[in-house]
Design brief:
The protein has about 80 residues and is of the alpha+beta class. Helix content is about 15%, strand content about 10%. The protein contains 2 helices and 2 strands; from the N terminus they run H-E-E-H. The structure holds zinc ion.
Length: about 80
């Protein structure tokens, strides 16, 4: 987790907005077979983390987000 925060400490991978309260999110939810490994850990803002829940992506964009949802940068 420490390496991830060092690389990108405050930018949410989902909405790409700066967050003052970064959460470490499981990119692939554990209920979908994701593991608690650094490869599966990403920084998410609290909104996206909570909106995502046990799904692959957040359902709703955070307040203040501008642009298409889902964003183009999602794979
Ligand atoms: Zn976000």
């Amino acid at each position: 987790m420490r390496e991830i925060k060092k690389v990108n400490p405050s930018t949410c991978v989902y909405c790409r907005m700066e967050t003052t309260n970064p959460h470490v999110d499981h990119r692939i939810p554990r209920v979908l077979g994701g593991n608690a490994t650094p490869q599966n850990a990403v920084i998410a803002c609290s909104w996206c983390n909570l909106s995502k829940g046990p799904r692959p992506y957040p359902v709703n964009p955070p307040p203040g987000y501008v642009g298409p949802w889902p964003p183009d940068h999602w794979d």
